[in-house]
Each structure stands twice: as structure tokens, then as C-alpha cells.
Design brief:
With 503 residues, the protein is of the alpha/beta class. It is built from 13 helices and 15 strands. The protein is 49% helix and 21% strand.
Length: 503
């Protein structure tokens, strides 16, 4: 579960490229990277339970475990040579619908498939004619693809593309230094021989012939008998192996078939191929032990200069292998690191792939949303913890301030009591200052106007005594009328001085 989550959060695409063969299936697991994908697994499995696996070939149970292990990865099927037809077709149509119709008609006419359901796709090729377009068209029967999917138990895997074998070779050579002009790529397998003719990097035609290692071995066995190493023979002359004898017996027919295909293509394109044009440089892929025999047949009957593909690969890009050419090419095209190839993916498989991509996107979005919500919750929890700690600190500070305020109020009340005690002294102190100022004023008056002082009193005492005298007089004489003081002086504090001045 944790591994699945890590893959979805930090997804580095893994691509499984599968090459079904007549008696086995070859798979490679690639890790998408920069600048090109890297192969991390390359294995061969046999699905025939009657055959004992050997030489590193794994059995059917291990194949089922491999499929289950890589069920969530993207799969690409490279169809065998014999199941697909690839060729260049020129048409005059301009709109996409007319192009598809024209290519469908020409493909069915050339292939002779009749009313069978055919999957067809095309890619535009460079053309020397301005009024016509040339397309590289690949097609095969839908039943063949469905049968491969069923027989190999990959119904529930994410199949993202189905590619023809010739197209995969075309993609595989794009990153390599290629011969100039016209040249051909010949791959000899057990089940037959594949031929692709190129013009620089553009394919012109492809074909598959049911003549290869298996037929050569069979012919060699029937004509020469079983070849044994070691003693038992009185002749000291080494006998040719069954494979070598078989190659010599089918070599002429094998080479003539390729020559006929090249000539027919030239006639169909409106040009007659000369002997010089038929002597194309050839890159040969075959078993190392039979390379010289096949090369000699090409040189003898076609006049081709043959370069072993492994030597060419070694000269141009160390690390590539001829047995991985189709796997590498299919992976490069699917990962958008090479040219676009015709796709033979059936519509229902494509819909299943699209649905799986949608499901994956939804699951990824849901997982990302859960991750973001988790992050938000963690951030909110951390923020809440910080705010709680801050609140606790503020409450502690508030308690401290309240304690200090209480002490301050106690000190204030104490100071207030002390002030009430000292207030009379302060008032008396103020009266002392007023008396001194009054005496100073009296001294200045006595110098200017001679006289004598009759009364010196503070304002409160002065008026209170006057009020008392008046109240007493009224009490003694009921007939007297109270008088109001009109010259009462209003002052906060001060002294009243009564003087008698000399006239």
C-alpha cells in the first residue's frame, strides 16, 4: 500500500514492452527518464507448459506472476512481423476523412483481407510531389491482436499502444547514424525474414517472408541428416552444419523473393529499378553463428554490401543490442522521445486504457486532495498549538499585571491616607507663605501711607467671625435688620488686612 502511494505521489512512469514470438514472449521493463528511457528488466518467458524452460527462459507460472506484478504499469505490444503489413501509399485526398477512406480502400486491395475487421493507422511521410501526399500505413486483423491479449493473459493490464514490428524498427534506428540513400534492414528470425527498405531515415516498403532459421535447419536436416560433433566419421573434411546447408539450399529463393518485392515496389511507384538500385547496402540481424552464411547469400544473389547490425550499432551507439531494437524503438515512440508511429490499438482496448487513465487521474486527484487536507490539518493543529501557547503566555502575563495593579491600588490608598494626614500641614504651609507676602505688602504700604494695622485674618476666619457677630446682634436686638456684605472677596486662599491710615 505504501509503495502504491509513493508511486502515485511521485510517479515515474514504467513501461512494459512485450514482443510475442512463436514459442515465447520477450518483455522489457523501461523506466522513463531523460534524455531516453532506460531498460531495467529484460526477460524471456515460455507459455508452453510442455516445454521445459532452459537458458534463462522462465515458465508460464513466472509469466503470470510478472503480469500481476506489473498490472498497474503501462504496456506496449509489438506485434510479430507476420501479423502486420506496413507500406507507403500515395493518395491525392486532402481532407482527413477522404484520406482515411482512400487509405482503407488501397490497403484492403493490396492486402486481400476482404471483409475482415482491419485496424489501420498511418503517418505522413516526406514527399517529393507537391500535389500528392505519401503515408506510411500499417494494418493488421483485429482478431490477431485480441488473440494475443487472451493467450498471454493481459486482459486486465493497462495496454496503452499496439505497434507493428517494422514500425518499432523504424523508431529504433532514429537515434543512430544511418546509411545514406537507399538501404535495407534484413532481420532473420526462426519464423521468417523481415525486410524493410529505407530512403535515408524514411521507410519505403516492408515485407515478411516465411523463410528463416527454422526452415533452414529443417532443410539442412532433411538433406544432410543429423550432424554430430566428435568421432564416428572416417572423413577428415569438416561437414557443414544442417543450418549452413539449409541456408545454401533456400538462399537463392530467399534472396529472389526480396528482389521481387523491391522491383514490384519500384514498378508501383512508376520507376523501373536498375541493377544498381537493386544492389542496396544491407544491415543484417541474425544469429551470430549463421551470419556469414546469410550474408554470402545476399552478396551472391543481390550484390549487396552487408554490414552486421551489431557492428554498426557498436560504431554508432555503444550499449544498444539488435535483440532490443524493436523494444527500444517502441518504448522511445511511446514516451515521445522518437517519431510518431501508426497505432494498432483496438478501439475497445483504447477505451479501457482511457478509462484507466481517467481512474488513475481521479485516484491521484483524490490522493492529492487527501494529502493536502492532511497537510492543512497538520498546519491548523500546529497553528492552534502555537495560539494556545501564546494564549497561555498572555494569561500568565495578565495574572502578573493584575497582581501588580492590586499592589499599586494598595500603595495608592496608603498614599491617599498619608496625604489626608499631611494636608493640614500643607495648608498651614500655604498660609505661612500668604502671611509673609501680606506683611511684605503692609511694609510697602506703611512706607508710602503712614497708619496702623487694625486686623489681620484669613478669609475663612474673617468672614465667619463677621457672620457670627451679625447673628449675635440680631439675637440681642430683634428690631434690627440683617445687612448683607457687599464687599465680600472671593478667594481660594489669602489674608484680609484692615488698616487705619493717617489722614
Amino acid at each position: 500500500m505504501i509503495h502504491r502511494i509513493k508511486q502515485m505521489l511521485w510517479r515515474q512512469r514504467r513501461l512494459v514492452v512485450m514482443l510475442p514470438e512463436h514459442d515465447a514472449v520477450r518483455v522489457g521493463v523501461y523506466l522513463d527518464g531523460y534524455p531516453i528511457p532506460s531498460q531495467i528488466v529484460s526477460e524471456v518467458y515460455t507459455l508452453d507448459t510442455a516445454v521445459t524452460p532452459r537458458n534463462g527462459v522462465k515458465n508460464a507460472e513466472q509469466w503470470a506472476a510478472f503480469v500481476d506484478q506489473h498490472r498497474e504499469n503501462s504496456w506496449v505490444i509489438v506485434l510479430p512481423h507476420a501479423l502486420t503489413i506496413s507500406q507507403s501509399i500515395t493518395c491525392e485526398a486532402t481532407t482527413p476523412d477522404l484520406i482515411d477512406q482512400d487509405l482503407q480502400k488501397q490497403a484492403k486491395k493490396l492486402s486481400g483481407l476482404g471483409q475482415r475487421k482491419v485496424i489501420l493507422d498511418h503517418e505522413l511521410l516526406p514527399s517529393h510531389q507537391s500535389d500528392r501526399s505519401t503515408y506510411w500505413v500499417t494494418y493488421c486483423q483485429d482478431d490477431e491482436i485480441q488473440q494475443i491479449i487472451r493467450e498471454h493473459g493481459i486482459d486486465n493490464v493497462a495496454i496503452c499502444d499496439v505497434i507493428g514490428s517494422h514500425d518499432a524498427c523504424w523508431s529504433g534506428i532514429q537515434h543512430l547514424r544511418r546509411p545514406k540513400g537507399n538501404w535495407m534492414l534484413v532481420e532473420v528470425l526462426d519464423g521468417g525474414t523481415s525486410l524493410v527498405v529505407f530512403e535515408d531515415h524514411t521507410p519505403l516498403l516492408s515485407h515478411f517472408y516465411p523463410m528463416g532459421h527454422a526452415l533452414a535447419k529443417e532443410r539442412g536436416q532433411s538433406s544432410k541428416g543429423t550432424y554430430r560433433l566428435g568421432g564416428g566419421s572416417s572423413s577428415t573434411t569438416p561437414k557443414p552444419s544442417p543450418l549452413s546447408s539449409g541456408i545454401q539450399s533456400i538462399g537463392e529463393a530467399w534472396a529472389r523473393e526480396m528482389e521481387r518485392t523491391i522491383l514490384e515496389h519500384g514498378n508501383r511507384e512508376g520507376r523501373v529499378s536498375s541493377s544498381v538500385e537493386r544492389q542496396l547496402p544491407c544491415l543484417l540481424i541474425c544469429e551470430p553463428g549463421s551470419r556469414s552464411d546469410w550474408a554470402s547469400q545476399l552478396q551472391l544473389y543481390l550484390g549487396s554490401s552487408v554490414l552486421p547490425f551489431e557492428n554498426w550499432i557498436h560504431e554508432t551507439s555503444i550499449g544498444w543490442k539488435s535483440k532490443n531494437l524493436r523494444q527500444d524503438g517502441a518504448c522511445m515512440s511511446t514516451c515521445k522521445k522518437s517519431i510518431s508511429l501508426p497505432s494498432l490499438l483496438p478501439e475497445e482496448v483504447k477505451q479501457a486504457w482511457d478509462q484507466k487513465q481517467v481512474d488513475l487521474a481521479l485516484r491521484s486527484a483524490a490522493l492529492v486532495a487527501c494529502f493536502l487536507i492532511t497537510v492543512m490539518l497538520v498546519v491548523a493543529f500546529i497553528q492552534k498549538s502555537v495560539l494556545w501557547d501564546l494564549k497561555s503566555d498572555l494569561l500568565e502575563q495578565l495574572d502578573s499585571v493584575e497582581a501588580k495593579v492590586g499592589k499599586s491600588l494598595e500603595v495608592f490608598d496608603s498614599l491617599k491616607e498619608e496625604y489626608q494626614m499631611l494636608r493640614p500641614l500643607l495648608m498651614a504651609e500655604d498660609q505661612t507663605v500668604a502671611v509673609l507676602k501680606t506683611l511684605e505688602t503692609l511694609q510697602s504700604l506703611s512706607r508710602e501711607d503712614p497708619g496702623w494695622m487694625v486686623l489681620l485674618a484669613d478669609i475663612g476666619s474673617y468672614y465667619s467671625i463677621g457672620d457670627q457677630i451679625q447673628a449675635r446682634a440680631l439675637a440681642e436686638d430683634t428690631n434690627s435688620v440683617p445687612s448683607s456684605t457687599t464687599n465680600r472677596i472671593v478667594m481660594d486662599r489669602g489674608l484680609v488686612l484692615e488698616m487705619v491710615l493717617d489722614a
